[in-house]
């Protein structure tokens, strides 16, 4: 299931990146930069998710996958929403997503092949 989540996160990052490059014409440079950051972080963490199946199936591996998935959703998702609605308050959960991403990487450090 991890590789499927990774594939969906990666493919949607490509599509959202294309939308940011072409569909945000006329928006502020700040919105475009925020959108780009969201797509980059989504792709980085989709790739991290894609590597998890090489590790032994343990509760820690599951936790890492959940941390990355939650991080993508909260961090990137809230930024996308904030950009589309032009509402800074909508991205207030982004730091929680960033913490989840950090926890995903930290959890990966204890995984074994």
What do these coordinates show?
The protein has 113 residues and is mainly α. The protein has one domain. The protein is built from 4 helices and no strands. The protein has helices at residues 2-22, 29-51, 59-85, 94-108. The longest helix has 27 residues, at 59-85. The chain is elongated. The two termini are 18 Å apart.
Beta-strand level of the residues, as a percent range? Answer: under 5%
Task: Label the structural class.
Answer: mainly alpha
Largest β-sheet summary: none
Helical percent range?
over 70%
Mean pLDDT: 97
Sketch the topology as an H/E string, one letter per element: HHHH
Count of all domains: 1
Q: Are there runs of 5+ residues with pLDDT below 50, and where?
A: none
Total DSSP E strands: 0
Topology:
Elements: H1 2-22, H2 29-51, H3 59-85, H4 94-108
In short, what is this structure?
This protein has helices spanning 2-22, 29-51, 59-85, 94-108.
List keywords for this structure.
113 residues; mainly alpha; 0% strand
């Amino acid at each position: 299931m991890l590789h499927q989540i990774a594939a969906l996160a990666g493919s949607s990052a490509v599509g959202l990146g294309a939308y940011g490059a072409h569909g945000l014409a006329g928006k502020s440079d700040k919105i475009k930069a925020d959108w780009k950051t969201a797509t980059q972080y989504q792709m980085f963490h989709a790739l991290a998710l894609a590597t998890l199946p090489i590790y032994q199936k343990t509760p820690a591996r599951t936790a890492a996958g959940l941390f990355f998935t939650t991080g993508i959703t909260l961090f990137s998702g809230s930024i996308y929403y904030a950009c589309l609605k032009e509402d800074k308050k909508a991205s207030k959960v982004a730091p929680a997503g960033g913490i989840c991403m950090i926890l995903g990487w930290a959890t990966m450090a204890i995984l074994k092949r």
